[in-house]
Design goal:
Blueprint: E1 5-7, E2 13-15, E3 19-20, H1 26-39, E4 43-45, H2 53-66, E5 76-81, H3 88-101, E6 108-113, H4 120-135, E7 139-145, H5 149-156, E8 167-171, H6 179-187, E9 191-195, H7 212-220, H8 224-234, E10 238-240, H9 246-253, H10 262-268
Helix pairs in contact: 1-2, 1-9, 3-4, 7-8
């Protein structure tokens, strides 16, 4: 299936659904990514922390090699600088290592700072290096992850900014909506990638009967995962569902044949809930 493309403030386009590669076993990652490419995925999200950057790139590269009609431009490869690498020297080395891992992919589509935790000085030093990588042609778009509004404002007000963040990647689901932060980012022209949109599976096994999620699943003949991916898309976000099972990978993409109504979206919303399944550092100093 074809994925809608979203134009970033860098001028490049990103597929509207990506495959999260966190916790994929490195020994299996290349083959899982290859199968995902066959199913229609064109957007892959990895990180230094995941220890599978090279394997993600290998899976995409093998697919391109085996399918001459497929073009590199169709694919979108994201990775992230880990916290311990932040700072000028550390980030320069990280970028060099990342570029060495992409093989035949030639460039990194999106490079993010994984979190704001290293503090203002290292955040800005690292972002300066990301901008250098864009100017050198190694990276096309840059951005941040797990940033709160004050972190993004710090960056937007920085005198050294030449490439505004294209993306803020944060955990978003109906149970950790972050509506104010996400809508503010969108208003700044910064797209929002929603990681853990399926709550790491915590809420998928048995949606509470009688509630809007279960009702939508029944009405449209869709799984909870599919409805949650659609919910995220309906909010204007770019969801990054993760699975290593081909049937579920396929299912997570099959969301173009139904639309949630505004009432259904509002019913799935859990504005009074705050239940992140991952780390929380949007409120870090």
């Amino acid at each position: 299936m074809s994925l809608r493309l979203i134009k970033l403030n860098s001028g490049y386009s990103i597929p509207s659904v990506g495959m999260g590669c966190y916790n994929l076993p490195p020994a299996q990652t290349s083959s899982i990514v290859y199968e995902a490419c066959k199913l229609g995925y064109r957007h892959f999200d990895t990180a230094v922390l995941y220890h599978n950057e090279a394997e993600v790139a290998q899976g995409i590269s093998k697919y391109l090699q085996d399918h001459p009609g497929a073009k590199r431009l169709e694919f979108f490869y994201t990775t992230k600088v880990w916290d311990l690498q932040q700072g000028t020297a550390g980030t320069r080395k990280a970028v060099k290592d990342m570029v060495a891992k992409i093989g035949n992919l030639e460039y990194i589509d999106l490079l993010l700072l994984h979190s704001p935790l290293p503090g203002t000085k290292k955040r800005l030093e690292s972002y300066a290096v990301l901008q250098e990588a864009v100017e050198a042609g190694h990276v096309r778009s840059v951005g941040v992850s797990n940033y709160g509004r004050h972190h993004v404002e710090e960056l937007l007000q920085w005198s050294g900014l030449t490439h505004p963040p294209a993306v803020n990647q944060i955990e978003i689901s109906p149970w950790v909506m972050r509506t104010e932060l996400a809508q503010w980012c969108l208003a700044q022209g910064i797209h929002v990638e929603a990681y853990a949109p399926l709550t790491h599976g915590n809420r998928l096994a048995a949606p509470e009967p009688g509630l809007a999620l279960a009702a939508a699943c029944k009405k449209y003949g869709k799984s909870p995962a599919q409805v949650l991916v659609k919910w995220s898309l309906s909010k204007g976000y770019i969801p990054l569902p993760k699975s290593k099972t081909p049937s579920r990978l396929k299912e997570n993409l099959e969301v173009n044949d139904f639309e949630l109504t505004p009432d259904e979206i509002a019913g799935i919303d859990q504005p009074d809930s705050y239940d992140p399944t991952d780390w929380e550092c949007t409120d870090a100093p």
